Amino acid sequence: MNKKNFLYLVLILLAATLLRLWHIDKPEGMWNDEYLTWKIANAKLGTDFFVALKTNCHAPLHYLYLKLWMFIFHDSDKALRLSSLVPGVLGIIVMYFAALEYKKKEGINTALAVALICAISSFLIYFSQEIRIYSLTFFITTLMLLYAFKIFNNPSKKNFALYSIFSLCLILTHTIGFVFVFFSTAALLVFAVPKKKAKDFLLLSILGVIILALPFVPLIAKILFKTGYFSQWWAPFNFSRTLFLFTDVYSPVLNDTAHVYNTFSDAFYKNGIVNVGYFIFAIIPTLIGLTCFIKGILNPKKMQGYLLMTLLCTLLTVLIAAMAGKIVFVTKYMIEIVPIFLLFAADGFVSFKSKGFKITIATIFVVISLFYTAVSATSAVRMVREEGQRLPVVKLSEMGLKKNDKILFLYYPKDWYYKYVDFNNPVSEAYLNAEYITKHNFSYFLKTGMSTTQAYKDGKNILRPVFASSYNQTLEEWLNLFVTYTLKPGDSLFVVDLTSVSFFPMDVINNIAKDENAYKNTPLLYLVMSYIKNYSLEKLYSTLVYKGYQDTGSWRIYKFTKG
């Protein structure tokens, strides 16, 4: 690498780091998935840690990494977010060297191009600020790709072994990473490994990964074959939403992260109105990215078949699993294929002959990406975690929470807020005495004797009569015994509701339960949490004095007082 190219790389990495540091300290705090990640990593190493792992669907490597990080840098929100920034930036460096392996002597321009695309990628920036597995997953995937390319150029035992190690690391980081590893390894065997080296490759790569990953097969199987949970609980599959994969990868608009639009057509055209902003900031850079991607896959190279087979087979597998209701089709679950999308786009861009054309599309792409990142309230760096758990803590204080008041949390358990509560303040006793109805313990409140496992497995059939009814004895008795009867005159009750999962009014819930098609297509989660919220509020309106509500992010906090 000459001094000029080294300077370019340093500038790109500096820009990448600054973009990822910008607004990294989120005033709204961690949201649920981040909090759960921190909580698992914060468990004592040993029995507590492994018990905590069982409650989550992801493999342990990221939690071990985060535990080590917290041991060195502690666990402030900013420090935790920096744990994702570091692998996010390191992944850009690895992508640079992977591109050099991909094209060898002619690869310097492709290497700089892919480094720049990664540096300004809103998708990668977002997860470099998120306390989740995805930034580390990206970094490990880039290492896998680097050594896959090295196998093409030099099928040595060292490269086989390092490829195997990073493959195992990926499996131990991302639960469905084994899908990518499987197809990557199969594609290498087809396209890269000479017949005389196939035996070494099989022994060092395939067999090694399989043996080392065996302890985690039950966890992977549990996620893939868990009956009914994903298909009826979170969201039904929608073909239109699959197109957001491309806007997430190539544009600064992160719909699959912000959940702004339900369908792709709604994003740019609804009620006869064209969404000009979406067309400019999402469609145009996506079209540029896809044009370069197509040009990249048309450039004949010996590694091209490997990349295409890995990308397409991984994407198709996740798509089939989503259609079968086993997983939700969102871009972050396929972060392993994002480096391939970006590498093909970078290579395609460099291969265009017209210098003027390249300057034009590069300028448009970079300016749109950076302008949106800097200005938009929903950009990767500015996007508010609407479910951030510091938000209701701050709002409760503003609404006059007192020591003897009562809090009823809906959707998350009360200890999910403790990280942002000052327990030296007597007012905080209200948090310790709070009650909660969560997405996991709801079954007790809707049908006596029904386990949560039964609710996940056959909840749609079991709970349908409940949603169509106007009286719920179990829930009403619980509200009386543990909420309203515990208040003394002058005490207040605060109901903390997550509006993003409880948006149906009671009459809509009743109508959905009576309509076969509507009931089949409505996620159980939204019916459950909407029903609990509406029924609880109706009961409280009749027994307490209603004082109004206040909104903060995705939270709505209702206040009642006992007269």
Structural features, described:
With 563 residues, this protein is α/β, with parallel strands linked by helices. Helix content is 62%, strand content 6%. It contains 28 helices and seven strands. The strands form two sheets. Strands 4-3-5-7-6 form a five-stranded mixed sheet. A two-stranded antiparallel ribbon has the order 1-2. Helix 1 runs antiparallel to helix 5, helix 6 crosses helix 19 and helix 17 crosses helix 19.
Please write out the topology.
Blueprint: H1 3-21, H2 32-42, H3 47-54, H4 61-73, H5 77-103, H6 108-120, H7 122-127, H8 134-153, H9 157-171, H10 177-191, H11 198-213, H12 217-225, H13 229-233, H14 244-250, H15 255-258, H16 264-268, E1 269-270, E2 273-274, H17 276-297, H18 304-323, H19 338-351, H20 355-375, H21 390-398, E3 406-411, H22 429-432, E4 435-438, H23 442-446, H24 452-468, H25 473-482, E5 492-498, H26 506-514, H27 516-521, H28 524-543, E6 545-552, E7 555-561
Parallel strand pairs: 3-4, 3-5
Antiparallel strand pairs: 1-2, 5-7, 6-7
Helix pairs in contact: 1-5, 1-6, 2-4, 5-6, 5-8, 6-19, 8-9, 8-10, 9-11, 10-18, 14-17, 17-19, 17-20, 24-26
